[in-house]
């Protein structure tokens, strides 16, 4: 069956869009992030789970191997604020794959994980990029816990919870009129302050993605002091994601040349937490 020129053009456009979508979905740099969580109901003191997926949940673990080979994980508690290494092991269950480790102590605690993924070519820019990932889960219930455990000094790029503050201006980016309206309608909780650190200094004008237990992703830029404020509209697990690129760094990693170094950091934290009047990091 022959197609008219108009139908052929439409078919080619649809085919191109499908190919682009599949490329983006298949890119670990664009659709996969490193997440740490805690399962309080397993093990003597709970276990930590490490997922490399779009969300902190089990997945097929298609790009997990570099973390299985070389991820470094540790825990800090109020009694032992210096990092204590924990051993990750691979888990395969019902077609899903992730890493897990038994925790040696109860909370309050911070579980922190770092790994280098390797070099990946971004399909949109063509840049060969060396990928570094940092993931943190804070198991805390008070402002004192945040002050003691909130900063991961071993992370180059870190997301630090601050304090609850009075509602203030927020900076959503290109989330659309409908999503913006929904976000405003849902913004009835306390305003939470988040601080982004890059090499120990405020990460100014840096992207931060925030997602609540059921809400859509909301995109922000940090202010001139490295802060973002948002409304914690519902209780449950909140996720935070940021990244920084070093475009002046070139090199070779495991025989592969790269043009850019990208650091990605995530934080998972259950809200609400008593963060009132905590001092700024």
Instruction: Figure out the total of helices.
Output: 5
Q: Tell me the fraction of residues in β-strands, as a range.
A: 35-45%
Helix content: 10-25%
Number of domains: 1
Count of distinct strands: 18
Quick gist of this model?
With about 280 residues, the protein is an alpha+beta fold.
Q: Could you explain the architecture of this structure?
A:
Strand 16 (251-253) and strand 17 (256-258) form a beta hairpin. The chain has 281 residues and is α+β, with helices and mostly antiparallel strands. It is built from 5 helices and 18 strands. The termini are far apart. The protein has helices spanning 5-25, 28-31, 65-70, 143-149, 177-186, and strands at 33-39, 47-53, 72-77, 84-86, 89-93, 96-102, 109-121, 128-139, 157-165, 191-198, 201-202, 207-211, 218-221, 227-231, 236-246, 251-253, 256-258, 260-271. The radius of gyration is 20 Å and the shape is globular.
Question: Topology of this structure?
Answer:
Blueprint: H1 5-25, H2 28-31, E1 33-39, E2 47-53, H3 65-70, E3 72-77, E4 84-86, E5 89-93, E6 96-102, E7 109-121, E8 128-139, H4 143-149, E9 157-165, H5 177-186, E10 191-198, E11 201-202, E12 207-211, E13 218-221, E14 227-231, E15 236-246, E16 251-253, E17 256-258, E18 260-271
Parallel strand pairs: 8-18
Antiparallel strand pairs: 1-2, 2-6, 3-4, 3-7, 5-6, 7-8, 9-10, 10-11, 10-14, 12-13, 12-15, 15-18, 16-17
């Amino acid at each position: 069956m022959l197609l008219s020129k108009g139908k052929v053009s439409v078919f080619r456009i649809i085919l191109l869009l499908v190919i682009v979508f599949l490329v983006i979905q298949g890119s670990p740099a664009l659709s996969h992030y490193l997440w740490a969580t805690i399962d309080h109901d397993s093990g003597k003191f709970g276990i930590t789970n490490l997922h490399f997926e779009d969300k902190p949940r089990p997945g097929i673990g298609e790009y997990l191997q570099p973390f299985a080979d070389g991820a470094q994980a540790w825990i800090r508690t109020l009694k032992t604020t210096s990092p204590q290494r924990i051993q990750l092991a691979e888990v395969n269950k019902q077609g899903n794959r992730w890493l897990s480790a038994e925790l040696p102590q109860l909370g309050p605690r911070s579980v922190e994980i770092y790994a280098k993924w390797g070099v990946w070519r971004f399909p949109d820019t063509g840049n060969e990029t060396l990928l570094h990932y940092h993931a943190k889960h804070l198991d805390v219930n008070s402002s004192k816990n945040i002050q003691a455990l909130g900063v991961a000094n071993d992370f180059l790029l870190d997301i630090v919870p601050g304090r609850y503050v009075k509602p203030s201006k927020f900076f959503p980016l290109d989330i659309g009129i409908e999503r913006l309206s929904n976000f405003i309608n849902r913004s009835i909780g306390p305003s939470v302050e988040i601080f982004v650190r890059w090499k120990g200094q405020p990460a100014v004008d840096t992207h931060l993605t925030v997602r609540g237990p059921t809400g859509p992703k909301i995109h922000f830029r940090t202010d001139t002091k490295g802060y973002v404020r948002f409304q914690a509209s519902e209780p449950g697990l909140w996720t935070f994601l940021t990244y920084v690129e070093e475009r002046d760094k070139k090199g070779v990693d495991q025989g592969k040349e790269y043009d850019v170094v990208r650091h990605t950091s995530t934080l998972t934290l259950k809200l609400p937490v008593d963060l009132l009047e905590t001092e700024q990091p």
